[in-house]
Amino acid sequence: MTVASSFTGKVWKFGHDINTDLVIPNFAVMLPVEEQLQHCFNANRPGWVDEVQRGDVLIVGRNFGVGSARNIGAIFHGLGISGVVAESFNGLGLRNCINVGLPSLPCPGVLEVFEEGDVAEVDWRNGAVRNVTTGATTEGRPIPPQLQDLIAAGGVEDVLRSEGYLAEKTVTLR
Amino acid sequence: MGMNAIEKILANHSEQDVVRPGDVVMVDVDVTVQFDSARADVLKIANPEKLVLLHDHVVPAPTVMAANAAKRLREFAERFNVPNYFPVGKHGISHVLVAQEGYALPGQILVNADSHTCSSGALNCLARGMGGPEMLYILCKGQTWYQVGETTKVVLEGTLPERVYPRDIIHYIPGTYGDFAGRNLEWYGDGLAGIGMDGRLTMATISAELSAEFSLFPFDAVLAEYLEGRARWPFEPVFPDDDADYDQVITIDLSSLEPQIVLPDRVAWNTKGAREVGAEKIKVDQAFIGSCANGRISDFAIAAEILKGRTLAKGVRMIVTPGSQDIFQEAIRLGYVETLMEAGAVVTNSTCGACFGGHMGLLADGEVCITASTRNFKGRMGSPEAKVYMGSPATVAASAVTGVITDPRDLEKA
To answer: What is the rounded distance in angstroms from the CA atom of residue B147 to the CA atom of residue B140?
Structure first.
């Protein structure tokens, strides 16, 4: 699996300090990913998982993904989110996005460029961000090329399996 | 320009001579820690001798799913002949156990999926949470990467006043400086001499709530004494170069600090003095002391001292959870468990438990919890309609006695 260097999609906007426990609530921690994602943002935005569509984009504030090791990348990947642009990322949250191959771009000030429902066009490898709806543009600060390549490779599982570290038949765990 | 201690540890474990902010560094990992579960499809692993396996978040298993995960961990330990396995009965919270059992060592790199892995920074050990997918990679290959952030040097001066604790220091910082996403913390200053290992472990653990990458304490007399007879393997502490680069320096006069409460739902820019919060007379339903942040023996000692000869306020339930079986036994020997139970508290088995609303001690709709555990996120400890305030163990114990959130300095007057 390879990931394209840009994505375009409808914007969902969230504020600062969006934490892991909002993405995966406590009662869902032990569930398989496909069940976990049904509860995403249950506490702060009930019903969102019924509205979000494959290809949509997350535009988020500072400190995105702060909190636990709960795999927010797997949830947004599972919901079909095409990429995340955040004013800043928590390191562990970013790593979990990278490791499932979810395009991620740090971009200070991005909340001011979009309203919810606008269409975003994001070159996450080079940093160009454009609001297709209004024509406004801004520049993100792309993650280093080595990490971009991990995203483009589709995540660690594919790499490990291709190198013979994992059995062919997978067992789904949390 | 020299390197700080974090950059030097990274350089020591990589092929780079010099490590700078902005670099992505590939490193060899020293110690790998895995809890609660393992995958059955792993065919080969890098270093079983330096792998630590244990049970903490959900132990003893509360569901069949958790029981099956625990079974896979046991089978994994057998399959790869992992010598450092802690079965149920020898269990404890991973970050508590790796310090207690001498696996987290100065100058070394320790990895664990869990976000509070930064706890081991208290031992001059470079550690941070890695998440499940990264742990799978490290388990197989023994290597990982870090994106190097800028580092804030925190200088602690003086001594803490009575009833003010390390927990209050680590609450004060995000209240005054906000989050540290993508940044590191290194701790120095003469004030450290008065902060023991339990307090340093609290501060390093809660650094995750500041969104910091690494939170590294220096190797000094306090740490040297702690490691005496405890360290499992040889180690080499790492000190910053004299001309090390720090992007920011924060100096804190400990003698001027007051007890600090983090208000519900988030940590950055969300702290108030306990006396100010106390004036609001916020009624408490549950009081909790435990977790990798405050489930250690000195936390039991503080709670027992405050609760000795007192009883919980009507309508308050209090849960105290030791960070390991060893701590539990010590708390029994020292009489703390009896004191807490006589006051009306529930002392539980060692587990992450109520801290993450996983399998016990959950909050109902509309309830208020005052907690010395790790997180105050909406829904963290149960219902999303509950409110979680965080304070030191003394603040929690004092609040349990009065029934409202209380500055522990004001307990006698209450």
So the answer is: 21
